[in-house]
Amino acid sequence: MSEQTVYENRWFRVNLADVKLPDGRHLDHFLIRLRPVAVATVVNDANEVLMLWRHRFITDSWGWELAAGVVEDGEDIAAAAAREMEEETGWRPGPLRHLLTVEPSNGLTDARHHLYWGDSATYIGHPEDDFESSRREWVPLERVPGMIARGEIPAANMTAGLLMLHHLRLG
Fold first, then answer.
1. What residues contact 132, with CB distance under 8 A and at least 6 apart?
2. What is the pLDDT of residues 59-116, one digit of tens each?
3. What does DSSP assign to residue 81?
């Protein structure tokens, strides 16, 4: 019925919505409004995928991820994905293709994560944002399902994209 912002910063807004249920009752529901996230990786000729090993302080956990970041206002999503990959890995991707878009927590946020991939990249040097991960590696795509099963790739958006790439490249 209505929605009002209760907190806002450059990364997100917390809103309170008055939701009318089908039976006529009203429910106050908090939600988080977020900018889109662009994710990118490359799969090379050896069917290895470029990944980052990083720590997430919120969950105090380590895991494998793909390069990702918020889309700046007015920025093309695919261009943002390419920019993030270059900044975080030191590899400039060739042409990127849309892989999938996921909503990782659509009961609480309006976040949409747009995943892209390519099959070529050029190493341009040490990553500008090397602080975002402790290492970057080419990981055999065939290992991905086992890594997911062992909890080595904990982020749902990364898991979805990597399983899709595994299916596309290895069947």
1. 52, 54, 88
2. 999 999 999 999 999 999 999 999 999 999 999 999 999 999 999 898 899 999 999 9
3. H
Cα–Cα distance, 79 to 72 (Å, whole number): 10
3-class secondary structure for 141-165?
HHHHHHHHHCCCCCCHHHHHHHHHH
Three-class secondary structure of residue 61 per DSSP:
strand
CA-to-CA distance for 125 and 131, rounded, in angstroms?
15
| Alpha helices in 74-155, H assignment, sequence order | 77-89, 144-149
